[in-house]
Give the backbone structure.
Amino acid sequence: MTVPAGAYLVLSAALFTLGTVGVLVRRTALVLFMSIELMLNAVNLAFVTLARVHGDLGGQLAAFFVLVVAAVEVVVGLSILVHIFRTRDTVDVDEVDLLRG
Amino acid sequence: MGAWAVPWVVALPLAGALVNGLWGGRLGRRGVSLVACLSVLGAFLLSVALTRDLVASPGAEDRTVRLFEWIAVGDFRIPAALVWDRLAALLALVVTGVGFLIHVYSVGYMAEDPDYSRYFTYLNLFVASMLVLVLGANLLVLFVGWELVGLCSYLLIGFWFERPAAAAAGRKAFVVNRVGDAAFVLGILSTGSLLGTLDFREMARLLGEGGGGLRGHPALVTSALLLFAGATGKSAQLPLYVWLPDAMEGPTPVSALIHAATMVTAGVFLVGRLWPLFEAAGPVLPWVVAPVGAATALFAATVAVVQYDLKRVLAYSTISQLGYMFLALGVGGGTAAFFHLTTHAFFKALLFLAAGSVMHALHGQIDLRRLGGLWKSMPLTFLGFVVGAASLSGIPPLSGFWSKEEILHAAHGSGGLWLVALGTSFVTAYYATRAAVLAFLGDPQSPGRPHDPPPAMAWPLAGLVVLSAVGGFLGAKWLGAPFHAFLEPAWGGHEAPAPDLGEVALAVAVATAGVVAGWLAHRGRREPQLGPVRRALEAQWGVEALYEAAVVRPGRALAHLLSEAVDLRGVDRAASALAEAVVRAGSTIRTWQTGNVRQYAAGLLAGAVVLFAYWVLR
Amino acid sequence: MEVLLFVVSAVLSLAGGLGVVAARQPVHSALSLLVVLGALAVLYLTLAAEFLAVLQVIVYAGAIVVLFLFVIMLLHAQTPESRPSPVGAQAAVAVPLGLALWVGLSAAALQLPAPASPVPEGFGSTEAVGRELFGTFLLPFEVASLLLVVGIVAAVVLGSSPSSYERRGRER
């Protein structure tokens, strides 16, 4: 590996941070979801990098499972989102505050 | 009969109480009566056998039975133990013997009462408790019995608890006794810490040989005073006597057994049991016990003169006679005191049972002003009452004469007290005669057709008549004075009764004078006015009023204060304040729940960063 | 060569990430996400994870992003993307926090030693991954399939139109 593993990891951290900021800043539910996907992918990158570093396929398998779960999560999440939209006619996350005490 | 039988003396009545208590309903009246009476009879027979054994084998004097190790703290050990020595034997015989007679009497007396089994349960329990008291080998076991009889007394005085007067009387008895008991407990503690033991034989040994340097020791004196204070409560002496007259609210057999023959003698028994301690406690006996006894005797006798409730006359009479017993103890006449205890049990129980027969025949009427003319319709009862009253007054050759004479003889040396005793004798004869005249003679004041009681009640009455009449001969010198021979070894000393004829004649003369005075004053149902004296007597020389002002009213005020100020305003408010604080805190924290997803995420992130930083920097 | 590939892909992924987060229109965000996914696939290739790279393209880029686009289209008419005012406040909090996070993560990451050992032949190939999957990771595999079933059921139930759903409910 001519490119040091550290670079990959720093990149992964950066993407993760971007995703986090996105979750915190955006109000549109859809973009929120996409930011979460970004975070997941960043984590996957880290997993794969470390798999390469240690010669252990376990990291890749982990990334594999993350992938599968992310898929399911997107499906269910978006279904719920559609429902919320149908009932409340908005996708603004701030307006879904029924849990307010 | 070995020592193994001793616990059974207690166990039999206790078992009777349990059986009647748990299954009384199913046994029916006959079953309950059989269980109750037979258990006491069994205890009596065992006592007789054990006593015979005791007398027969003087070498093996006492039988002590250890039941189990009760308290064991380092070197200090108190077993739960019973002892069968002469003093215990005497009291056990009296308790079970007279107790049995009264049980039989109760079968007749309480025949109509709906709470039949409850009555006999309590009565048996009382007998068992009294036996624990009497047979206890150390102060603590005695105290257990002491408290238990107090409880039974409360339960039986307030037996008809739906009657407010009865409930109040039970309460009063318990509370006043409690005061005495507080002193008693302090006395126990004091004695135990001073002597290092509570066992009677140990104490006798420690204090016996010359007192072991403890004679007159202030701690010993204090212990004796405290213990005596406890005794005054239970034995209704001044100033803790006030519960006894009110205790007459209970069923009459109860009054006979508990408040005449047995429980109230517990104080006398206590002093007798702790004789070595009292003897070594210097001035206590002659300067406290005897005067209190004498004063109480006179006081109570005078108050008895103006009572209209026949049972109250007898109650005050009991207080007075108990005073005689304490007087005897105070002047060193231990045997005399217990002799009087025994004869008093006979004739006082007789008097109460006779009164009970009257009440039974006249449907609860006991006011002297409403009685009368019963000598014709209730001859047996009349005989019983007369014998009892004469014995009480000390008319020879009845039993009371013998024991009272001994007490007077013992008190002869202490001038003032002897005069008081003699004077009390006069008053005693007076009120006894008054009661007899007003209750039985003259014309009937109440409607109804009274008759002598049924066999269940009549036989015990007859038995007690016999005992009251001839019981005194147990102390007759010319018969070998078996009573004294029996009891004397308990004090280790020798004290043969030997009054001279002059004394005897004087005593008899005084008693007779009292009878005559009573007859003259009250025949034809007259009631001399006596003006202000009467008023003073009726108010019991102001004792009750004093208690009301000094104890009852401040007590109620304090209770009111505590409930209003402390409880309502203080505690309740603190509790509500706490609750309010919690609610307010909750409302505040509530506002943190915004329901905003992004804020929650932000929070999560912040937390994660902190954790991560900590991790990395560690 | 490798370095060039890395740099290009890294830059692309970062640009895409920024796009996801910052784009006004959701469609633009979705497309940016696509770019990120592609760049990452290339990076996976450089990391000897060929199977995963292909999977990434097929599942993520091919299915998930498509799903997103479908939903965006479905809700498109109702998504006003006016610049929301409270964003300012949130950003003030989020950005510093994010920077802190990045710095921290990087610091931690760089502490890791990097054994640059050559990888065995066939590392990351389909066969190798398959062996691991059905060997060591059999249980997670089965659980994951269960999860997929759950997802499907959820999708069907949640996805059916509300009227027919309620009707089914009232019939019970």
In short: The mean pLDDT of chain C is 80. Helices of chain C lie at 2-22, 26-46, 50-75, 87-111, 126-134, 138-159, 162-171.
